[in-house]
Description:
430 residues; alpha+beta; 3-hydroxy-3-methylglutaryl-coenzyme A Reductase, Chain A, domain 2; Alpha-Beta Plaits; four-stranded antiparallel β-sheet
Amino acid sequence: MSNLFAGFYKLTQSERLQKLAEFAGLQADDLSALRSSLSAEQAEVMIENVVGRYTLPLGLATNFLINEEEVLVPMVVEEPSIVAAVSYAAKLARAGGGFRTASSEPLMIGQVQVLDVANLDEAAAKLMAAEDELLAAANQHHPTIQKLGGGAKGIEIRPLPDTPAGPMLIVHILYDCRDAMGANAVNTAAESIAPLIEQITGGRVNLRILSNLTDRRTARAECLIPIEQLARDGLPGDQVARSIFEAWAFAAADPYRAATHNKGVMNGIDAVAVATGNDWRALEAGAHAYAARNGRYTSLTEWSLVTLGEHGLETGQVTHLRGALDMPLSVGTVGGATKAHPTARVSMKILGQPHARRLAEIMVAVGLAQNLAAIRALATEGIQRGHMRLHARQVALAAGAKEGQVQQIADKLVALGNIRVETARGLIGM
Length: 430
Protein backbone atom coordinates (compact mmCIF):
# COMPACT_ATOMS: atom_id res chain seq x y z
CA MET A 1 0.00 0.00 0.00
CA SER A 2 1.21 3.53 -0.73
CA ASN A 3 2.11 5.60 2.30
CA LEU A 4 -0.24 8.58 2.48
CA PHE A 5 1.97 10.40 4.96
CA ALA A 6 5.45 9.91 3.53
CA GLY A 7 7.57 12.99 4.32
CA PHE A 8 5.04 14.23 6.89
CA TYR A 9 7.86 15.48 9.13
CA LYS A 10 9.09 17.81 6.38
CA LEU A 11 5.84 19.82 6.40
CA THR A 12 5.22 22.90 8.50
CA GLN A 13 2.91 22.50 11.47
CA SER A 14 0.12 24.30 9.57
CA GLU A 15 0.56 21.99 6.58
CA ARG A 16 0.49 18.93 8.86
CA LEU A 17 -2.77 20.12 10.43
CA GLN A 18 -4.33 20.65 7.01
CA LYS A 19 -3.32 17.18 5.83
CA LEU A 20 -4.53 15.64 9.09
CA ALA A 21 -7.88 17.44 8.84
CA GLU A 22 -8.40 16.04 5.34
CA PHE A 23 -7.45 12.50 6.40
CA ALA A 24 -9.44 12.32 9.63
CA GLY A 25 -12.32 14.65 8.71
CA LEU A 26 -11.49 17.11 11.48
CA GLN A 27 -13.66 20.19 11.92
CA ALA A 28 -12.80 23.67 13.19
CA ASP A 29 -13.55 22.78 16.81
CA ASP A 30 -11.26 19.72 16.54
CA LEU A 31 -8.39 21.85 15.27
CA SER A 32 -9.07 24.35 18.04
CA ALA A 33 -8.81 21.54 20.62
CA LEU A 34 -5.43 20.55 19.19
CA ARG A 35 -4.18 24.12 19.52
CA SER A 36 -5.69 25.16 22.86
CA SER A 37 -6.33 21.79 24.53
CA LEU A 38 -7.88 21.85 28.01
CA SER A 39 -9.58 25.00 29.26
CA ALA A 40 -9.20 26.25 32.83
CA GLU A 41 -12.89 25.51 33.42
CA GLN A 42 -12.55 21.92 32.19
CA ALA A 43 -9.44 21.38 34.30
CA GLU A 44 -11.28 22.58 37.40
CA VAL A 45 -13.80 19.73 37.24
CA MET A 46 -11.35 16.96 36.33
CA ILE A 47 -9.19 16.93 39.48
CA GLU A 48 -8.92 18.69 42.83
CA ASN A 49 -7.11 21.90 43.89
CA VAL A 50 -6.50 23.03 40.32
CA VAL A 51 -4.11 25.97 39.91
CA GLY A 52 -3.26 25.66 36.22
CA ARG A 53 -2.71 23.40 33.25
CA TYR A 54 0.40 21.54 32.06
CA THR A 55 0.79 21.24 28.30
CA LEU A 56 2.72 18.52 26.46
CA PRO A 57 3.33 18.15 22.71
CA LEU A 58 1.00 15.96 20.67
CA GLY A 59 2.70 14.41 17.66
CA LEU A 60 1.60 11.93 15.02
CA ALA A 61 3.42 8.66 14.39
CA THR A 62 3.26 7.79 10.70
CA ASN A 63 3.88 4.74 8.49
CA PHE A 64 1.70 2.39 10.55
CA LEU A 65 -0.02 -0.32 8.56
CA ILE A 66 -2.07 -2.43 10.98
CA ASN A 67 -4.03 -5.36 9.60
CA GLU A 68 -3.67 -3.75 6.16
CA GLU A 69 -5.21 -0.48 7.32
CA GLU A 70 -3.43 2.89 7.33
CA VAL A 71 -3.30 4.30 10.88
CA LEU A 72 -2.10 7.69 12.09
CA VAL A 73 -1.18 7.41 15.77
CA PRO A 74 -1.45 10.41 18.12
CA MET A 75 1.23 10.40 20.82
CA VAL A 76 1.63 12.79 23.76
CA VAL A 77 5.18 12.73 25.10
CA GLU A 78 7.93 15.15 26.13
CA GLU A 79 10.97 13.03 25.20
CA PRO A 80 12.68 13.79 21.87
CA SER A 81 13.13 11.01 19.29
CA ILE A 82 10.22 8.82 20.38
CA VAL A 83 7.80 9.87 17.62
CA ALA A 84 10.51 9.92 14.95
CA ALA A 85 11.89 6.55 16.02
CA VAL A 86 8.57 4.74 16.15
CA SER A 87 7.60 6.17 12.75
CA TYR A 88 10.81 4.82 11.24
CA ALA A 89 10.32 1.41 12.85
CA ALA A 90 6.77 1.31 11.47
CA LYS A 91 8.24 1.99 8.02
CA LEU A 92 10.54 -1.03 8.41
CA ALA A 93 7.58 -3.21 9.44
CA ARG A 94 5.52 -1.87 6.57
CA ALA A 95 8.01 -3.34 4.11
CA GLY A 96 7.06 -6.78 5.44
CA GLY A 97 3.32 -6.18 5.30
CA GLY A 98 2.93 -4.09 8.43
CA PHE A 99 1.65 -5.26 11.80
CA ARG A 100 -0.76 -8.11 12.35
CA THR A 101 -2.70 -7.76 15.57
CA ALA A 102 -5.29 -9.57 17.67
CA SER A 103 -6.87 -9.14 21.09
CA SER A 104 -8.83 -11.09 23.68
CA GLU A 105 -12.25 -10.31 25.08
CA PRO A 106 -12.12 -7.31 27.46
CA LEU A 107 -12.24 -9.30 30.70
CA MET A 108 -11.14 -7.51 33.86
CA ILE A 109 -10.61 -9.06 37.29
CA GLY A 110 -12.22 -7.77 40.46
CA GLN A 111 -10.78 -9.11 43.72
CA VAL A 112 -12.58 -9.65 47.03
CA GLN A 113 -10.35 -10.46 50.02
CA VAL A 114 -11.97 -12.78 52.59
CA LEU A 115 -10.41 -13.34 56.02
CA ASP A 116 -11.33 -15.22 59.21
CA VAL A 117 -12.45 -18.27 57.23
CA ALA A 118 -12.34 -21.51 59.25
CA ASN A 119 -11.74 -23.84 56.30
CA LEU A 120 -10.49 -22.37 53.00
CA ASP A 121 -11.33 -25.39 50.85
CA GLU A 122 -14.83 -25.72 52.24
CA ALA A 123 -15.51 -22.00 51.80
CA ALA A 124 -14.19 -22.13 48.23
CA ALA A 125 -16.53 -25.02 47.38
CA LYS A 126 -19.52 -23.14 48.80
CA LEU A 127 -18.68 -20.05 46.76
CA MET A 128 -18.37 -22.00 43.51
CA ALA A 129 -21.72 -23.67 44.21
CA ALA A 130 -23.23 -20.19 44.54
CA GLU A 131 -21.62 -18.81 41.35
CA ASP A 132 -24.92 -17.97 39.64
CA GLU A 133 -26.14 -16.10 42.71
CA LEU A 134 -22.88 -14.17 42.94
CA LEU A 135 -22.96 -13.23 39.26
CA ALA A 136 -26.55 -12.03 39.61
CA ALA A 137 -25.53 -9.83 42.53
CA ALA A 138 -22.59 -8.44 40.56
CA ASN A 139 -24.84 -7.61 37.62
CA GLN A 140 -27.31 -5.47 39.56
CA HIS A 141 -25.52 -2.35 38.35
CA HIS A 142 -24.36 -1.02 34.97
CA PRO A 143 -27.24 -2.32 32.82
CA THR A 144 -25.81 -0.62 29.71
CA ILE A 145 -22.73 -2.84 29.75
CA GLN A 146 -24.95 -5.91 30.07
CA LYS A 147 -27.11 -4.81 27.14
CA LEU A 148 -23.95 -4.66 25.05
CA GLY A 149 -23.03 -8.21 26.01
CA GLY A 150 -20.75 -7.43 28.95
CA GLY A 151 -21.04 -7.79 32.69
CA ALA A 152 -19.96 -10.41 35.22
CA LYS A 153 -19.08 -13.68 33.45
CA GLY A 154 -17.47 -15.95 36.01
CA ILE A 155 -16.07 -16.53 39.49
CA GLU A 156 -12.67 -17.93 40.41
CA ILE A 157 -11.29 -18.73 43.87
CA ARG A 158 -7.65 -18.35 44.92
CA PRO A 159 -6.75 -19.64 48.42
CA LEU A 160 -3.76 -17.93 50.03
CA PRO A 161 -3.06 -20.14 53.04
CA ASP A 162 0.20 -18.49 54.13
CA THR A 163 0.32 -14.68 54.15
CA PRO A 164 1.79 -12.29 56.75
CA ALA A 165 -1.80 -11.64 57.92
CA GLY A 166 -2.72 -15.32 58.04
CA PRO A 167 -4.79 -17.45 55.66
CA MET A 168 -7.21 -15.74 53.31
CA LEU A 169 -9.45 -16.52 50.37
CA ILE A 170 -9.41 -14.32 47.27
CA VAL A 171 -12.52 -14.30 45.12
CA HIS A 172 -12.02 -13.21 41.51
CA ILE A 173 -14.96 -11.89 39.56
CA LEU A 174 -14.36 -11.91 35.80
CA TYR A 175 -16.07 -8.89 34.28
CA ASP A 176 -16.49 -8.11 30.58
CA CYS A 177 -16.16 -4.32 30.29
CA ARG A 178 -16.86 -3.99 26.56
CA ASP A 179 -15.51 -0.58 25.42
CA ALA A 180 -14.93 0.81 28.91
CA MET A 181 -11.63 0.53 30.73
CA GLY A 182 -13.92 -0.76 33.46
CA ALA A 183 -12.40 0.26 36.79
CA ASN A 184 -15.62 1.76 38.15
CA ALA A 185 -17.81 -1.09 36.92
CA VAL A 186 -15.48 -3.79 38.29
CA ASN A 187 -15.09 -2.07 41.66
CA THR A 188 -18.87 -1.70 41.94
CA ALA A 189 -19.36 -5.38 41.09
CA ALA A 190 -16.79 -6.44 43.71
CA GLU A 191 -18.50 -4.33 46.35
CA SER A 192 -21.92 -5.71 45.37
CA ILE A 193 -20.97 -9.33 46.03
CA ALA A 194 -19.08 -8.71 49.28
CA PRO A 195 -22.07 -9.09 51.67
CA LEU A 196 -23.14 -12.31 49.95
CA ILE A 197 -19.59 -13.70 50.18
CA GLU A 198 -19.53 -13.01 53.91
CA GLN A 199 -22.90 -14.73 54.30
CA ILE A 200 -21.80 -17.82 52.34
CA THR A 201 -18.36 -18.23 53.94
CA GLY A 202 -18.91 -16.87 57.43
CA GLY A 203 -15.72 -14.86 56.86
CA ARG A 204 -14.92 -11.16 56.87
CA VAL A 205 -14.41 -9.18 53.66
CA ASN A 206 -11.70 -6.53 53.61
CA LEU A 207 -10.55 -5.25 50.19
CA ARG A 208 -12.88 -5.12 47.16
CA ILE A 209 -10.94 -3.77 44.19
CA LEU A 210 -9.95 -4.47 40.59
CA SER A 211 -6.56 -5.92 39.65
CA ASN A 212 -4.34 -4.10 37.19
CA LEU A 213 -2.70 -7.39 36.21
CA THR A 214 -5.23 -7.81 33.41
CA ASP A 215 -3.91 -11.08 32.01
CA ARG A 216 -7.37 -11.97 30.64
CA ARG A 217 -7.46 -8.75 28.61
CA THR A 218 -4.48 -8.90 26.29
CA ALA A 219 -3.41 -7.71 22.86
CA ARG A 220 -0.81 -9.09 20.48
CA ALA A 221 1.15 -7.65 17.58
CA GLU A 222 3.55 -9.33 15.16
CA CYS A 223 5.71 -8.04 12.34
CA LEU A 224 8.08 -9.55 9.79
CA ILE A 225 10.88 -7.33 8.46
CA PRO A 226 12.91 -8.23 5.35
CA ILE A 227 16.58 -8.08 6.35
CA GLU A 228 17.52 -5.81 3.46
CA GLN A 229 15.43 -3.10 5.14
CA LEU A 230 17.68 -3.24 8.19
CA ALA A 231 20.96 -2.43 6.41
CA ARG A 232 22.49 0.91 7.44
CA ASP A 233 25.79 2.80 7.44
CA GLY A 234 27.70 0.00 5.74
CA LEU A 235 26.25 -2.71 8.00
CA PRO A 236 24.51 -5.53 6.05
CA GLY A 237 20.94 -6.33 7.00
CA ASP A 238 21.66 -9.79 8.28
CA GLN A 239 24.30 -8.42 10.66
CA VAL A 240 21.87 -5.81 12.00
CA ALA A 241 19.18 -8.48 12.41
CA ARG A 242 21.62 -10.67 14.32
CA SER A 243 22.58 -7.74 16.57
CA ILE A 244 18.90 -7.01 17.30
CA PHE A 245 18.29 -10.66 18.13
CA GLU A 246 21.29 -10.69 20.47
CA ALA A 247 20.10 -7.49 22.16
CA TRP A 248 16.69 -9.07 22.76
CA ALA A 249 18.32 -12.24 24.13
CA PHE A 250 20.14 -10.09 26.70
CA ALA A 251 16.80 -8.65 27.87
CA ALA A 252 15.18 -12.09 27.89
CA ALA A 253 17.89 -13.40 30.22
CA ASP A 254 18.66 -10.43 32.46
CA PRO A 255 16.12 -8.42 34.52
CA TYR A 256 18.40 -5.36 34.67
CA ARG A 257 18.38 -5.11 30.87
CA ALA A 258 14.72 -6.18 30.66
CA ALA A 259 13.61 -3.23 32.80
CA THR A 260 15.05 -0.70 30.32
CA HIS A 261 14.03 -2.85 27.34
CA ASN A 262 10.41 -2.85 28.53
CA LYS A 263 10.58 0.85 29.31
CA GLY A 264 11.14 1.28 25.57
CA VAL A 265 7.95 -0.65 24.86
CA MET A 266 6.03 1.57 27.27
CA ASN A 267 7.52 4.75 25.77
CA GLY A 268 5.19 4.14 22.85
CA ILE A 269 2.19 2.70 24.65
CA ASP A 270 2.10 5.36 27.37
CA ALA A 271 2.25 8.16 24.81
CA VAL A 272 -0.83 6.80 23.01
CA ALA A 273 -2.57 6.25 26.36
CA VAL A 274 -2.03 9.87 27.37
CA ALA A 275 -3.18 11.12 23.95
CA THR A 276 -6.42 9.14 24.21
CA GLY A 277 -7.14 9.89 27.88
CA ASN A 278 -6.38 6.37 29.12
CA ASP A 279 -4.79 5.36 32.42
CA TRP A 280 -1.11 4.90 31.56
CA ARG A 281 -0.30 4.13 35.22
CA ALA A 282 -2.57 1.09 35.15
CA LEU A 283 -0.97 -0.05 31.89
CA GLU A 284 2.52 0.27 33.38
CA ALA A 285 1.53 -1.75 36.46
CA GLY A 286 -0.03 -4.50 34.38
CA ALA A 287 2.83 -4.67 31.88
CA HIS A 288 5.61 -5.03 34.43
CA ALA A 289 3.66 -7.52 36.55
CA TYR A 290 3.01 -9.56 33.38
CA ALA A 291 6.71 -9.48 32.53
CA ALA A 292 7.37 -11.24 35.86
CA ARG A 293 4.43 -13.66 35.72
CA ASN A 294 6.65 -16.76 35.51
CA GLY A 295 8.65 -15.85 38.61
CA ARG A 296 11.43 -13.89 36.87
CA TYR A 297 11.23 -10.47 35.26
CA THR A 298 11.95 -10.69 31.53
CA SER A 299 11.34 -9.09 28.13
CA LEU A 300 7.79 -8.39 27.04
CA THR A 301 8.76 -8.71 23.39
CA GLU A 302 10.21 -11.62 21.44
CA TRP A 303 12.51 -11.31 18.42
CA SER A 304 13.73 -14.15 16.22
CA LEU A 305 15.66 -14.69 13.00
CA VAL A 306 13.73 -16.26 10.13
CA THR A 307 15.42 -18.29 7.42
CA LEU A 308 12.48 -19.05 5.18
CA GLY A 309 12.17 -17.79 1.63
CA GLU A 310 9.30 -17.84 -0.86
CA HIS A 311 6.62 -20.51 -0.41
CA GLY A 312 8.04 -21.34 3.03
CA LEU A 313 11.18 -22.95 1.63
CA GLU A 314 14.21 -23.13 3.93
CA THR A 315 17.05 -20.97 2.61
CA GLY A 316 19.72 -21.56 5.25
CA GLN A 317 20.26 -17.81 5.44
CA VAL A 318 18.46 -15.16 7.47
CA THR A 319 15.70 -13.62 5.36
CA HIS A 320 13.59 -11.78 7.92
CA LEU A 321 13.50 -10.50 11.46
CA ARG A 322 10.30 -11.48 13.27
CA GLY A 323 8.95 -9.56 16.25
CA ALA A 324 6.05 -10.24 18.61
CA LEU A 325 4.55 -8.53 21.63
CA ASP A 326 1.80 -10.06 23.75
CA MET A 327 0.76 -8.15 26.88
CA PRO A 328 -2.18 -6.98 29.00
CA LEU A 329 -3.81 -3.75 27.79
CA SER A 330 -6.86 -2.51 29.67
CA VAL A 331 -7.92 0.54 27.69
CA GLY A 332 -11.27 2.18 27.10
CA THR A 333 -12.89 4.29 24.43
CA VAL A 334 -15.90 5.44 26.45
CA GLY A 335 -16.09 7.28 29.75
CA GLY A 336 -13.43 9.04 31.81
CA ALA A 337 -10.90 11.38 30.23
CA THR A 338 -11.45 9.80 26.80
CA LYS A 339 -14.63 11.85 26.65
CA ALA A 340 -13.93 14.62 29.20
CA HIS A 341 -10.68 15.87 27.65
CA PRO A 342 -11.20 17.74 24.35
CA THR A 343 -7.86 16.72 22.86
CA ALA A 344 -8.39 13.08 23.80
CA ARG A 345 -11.65 13.21 21.85
CA VAL A 346 -9.78 14.51 18.80
CA SER A 347 -7.14 11.78 19.20
CA MET A 348 -9.88 9.18 19.09
CA LYS A 349 -11.22 10.79 15.93
CA ILE A 350 -7.76 10.67 14.33
CA LEU A 351 -7.65 6.94 15.13
CA GLY A 352 -11.02 6.44 13.42
CA GLN A 353 -13.14 6.13 16.61
CA PRO A 354 -11.88 2.62 17.41
CA HIS A 355 -13.59 0.29 19.88
CA ALA A 356 -11.54 -0.69 22.91
CA ARG A 357 -10.07 -3.87 21.44
CA ARG A 358 -9.00 -2.06 18.26
CA LEU A 359 -7.35 0.67 20.36
CA ALA A 360 -5.48 -1.98 22.35
CA GLU A 361 -4.28 -3.55 19.11
CA ILE A 362 -3.02 -0.20 17.81
CA MET A 363 -1.21 0.41 21.09
CA VAL A 364 0.48 -3.01 21.14
CA ALA A 365 1.69 -2.42 17.57
CA VAL A 366 3.15 0.91 18.69
CA GLY A 367 4.84 -0.81 21.65
CA LEU A 368 6.45 -3.39 19.35
CA ALA A 369 7.60 -0.69 16.92
CA GLN A 370 9.05 1.43 19.72
CA ASN A 371 10.97 -1.57 21.04
CA LEU A 372 12.35 -2.29 17.57
CA ALA A 373 13.47 1.32 17.20
CA ALA A 374 15.28 1.27 20.53
CA ILE A 375 17.13 -2.03 20.17
CA ARG A 376 18.01 -1.30 16.55
CA ALA A 377 19.64 1.96 17.63
CA LEU A 378 21.41 0.25 20.52
CA ALA A 379 22.66 -2.54 18.29
CA THR A 380 23.99 -0.22 15.56
CA GLU A 381 24.80 3.45 16.20
CA GLY A 382 24.15 3.51 19.94
CA ILE A 383 21.14 5.16 21.52
CA GLN A 384 22.70 8.59 22.05
CA ARG A 385 23.57 9.72 18.53
CA GLY A 386 20.06 10.16 17.19
CA HIS A 387 18.51 10.95 20.55
CA MET A 388 20.98 13.72 21.40
CA ARG A 389 20.60 15.27 17.96
CA LEU A 390 16.90 15.79 18.69
CA HIS A 391 17.57 16.61 22.34
CA ALA A 392 19.75 19.52 21.19
CA ARG A 393 16.63 21.47 20.25
CA GLN A 394 15.33 21.20 23.81
CA VAL A 395 18.71 22.35 25.14
CA ALA A 396 18.66 25.36 22.79
CA LEU A 397 15.15 26.25 23.92
CA ALA A 398 16.10 25.88 27.60
CA ALA A 399 19.07 28.20 27.02
CA GLY A 400 16.74 30.94 25.79
CA ALA A 401 16.90 30.57 22.01
CA LYS A 402 14.01 32.23 20.19
CA GLU A 403 11.78 30.09 18.01
CA GLY A 404 13.60 31.08 14.82
CA GLN A 405 17.00 30.33 16.37
CA VAL A 406 16.32 26.92 17.90
CA GLN A 407 17.29 24.67 14.98
CA GLN A 408 20.33 26.79 14.10
CA ILE A 409 21.67 26.63 17.68
CA ALA A 410 20.84 22.91 17.90
CA ASP A 411 22.80 22.20 14.71
CA LYS A 412 25.83 24.05 16.09
CA LEU A 413 25.63 22.11 19.36
CA VAL A 414 25.61 18.81 17.45
CA ALA A 415 28.53 19.93 15.26
CA LEU A 416 30.52 20.86 18.37
CA GLY A 417 29.62 17.57 20.07
CA ASN A 418 28.81 19.59 23.20
CA ILE A 419 25.06 19.57 23.82
CA ARG A 420 24.93 21.60 27.01
CA VAL A 421 22.86 24.59 28.12
CA GLU A 422 25.99 26.64 28.92
CA THR A 423 27.35 26.07 25.41
CA ALA A 424 24.01 27.01 23.88
CA ARG A 425 23.89 30.24 25.87
CA GLY A 426 27.32 31.14 24.55
CA LEU A 427 26.18 30.52 20.99
CA ILE A 428 23.04 32.63 21.49
CA GLY A 429 25.15 35.51 22.77
CA MET A 430 27.55 35.44 19.79
